[in-house]
């Protein structure tokens, strides 16, 4: 396995492990197929969903994920990033402090992973989504990836957007604003 594929595999596994939503519904209530198509500029019919209930073992983290990918694309088994996709992960924690702690740990981990990537990642604040919001931008195998992380109350939120043909940052930030407004 090449170094690039190892890095992609590590990022994909991290995305699956860290994946999730929060409020009274599901992550797919917060990011629908129609939302994904509008934000990413194309139909994305392949759905990835997961729901991990809170337990003492996982730090009382109710994690739900909703991802929208091109037809036939499977994140868990892919050799590389999708040409276009968007995935929402929301962690519903017991308190705002717990959500901020998870958010801070996620950002720290992302910065460590970025150091191992060829070309690294660029991190910028996103003031519109609060003082803790940050946008990570990177490129893997010619696909640009934007990962937006922010905290909203007792929720730590992560949105990952992939695009081969254009920068996905605007779509990730637009999704973040839309989702933050639903809490």
Strand residue content: 25-35%
End-to-end CA span: 41 Å
CATH superfamily: PknH-like extracellular domain
* Number of β-strand runs: 7
What is the CATH fold-level name? Protein Transport Mog1p, Chain A
Integer tally of domains: 1
The total count of helices amounts to: 5
Going across the biggest sheet, name each strand in turn: 1-2-3-7-6-5-4
Main β sheet profile: 7 strands, antiparallel
User: Fraction of residues in helices?
Assistant: 25-40%
Can you tell me the overall shape? globular
Tell me the layout of helices and strands.
Layout: H1 3-17, H2 27-30, H3 33-40, E1 46-52, E2 62-69, E3 84-92, H4 96-116, E4 122-125, E5 134-140, E6 143-152, E7 155-163, H5 169-180
Antiparallel strand pairs: 1-2, 2-3, 3-7, 4-5, 5-6, 6-7
Describe the structure.
The protein has 183 residues and is of the alpha+beta class. The protein has a single domain, classed as Protein Transport Mog1p, Chain A (3-Layer(aba) Sandwich). The chain is built from 5 helices and 7 strands. It has a 7-stranded antiparallel sheet, with helices on both faces. Helix 3 packs antiparallel against helix 5. The radius of gyration is 15 Å and the shape is globular. The N terminus is likely disordered.
Concise summary:
The protein is an alpha+beta fold and 183 residues long.
Q: Which key terms come to mind for this protein?
A:
alpha+beta; Protein Transport Mog1p, Chain A; 33% helix; disordered N terminus
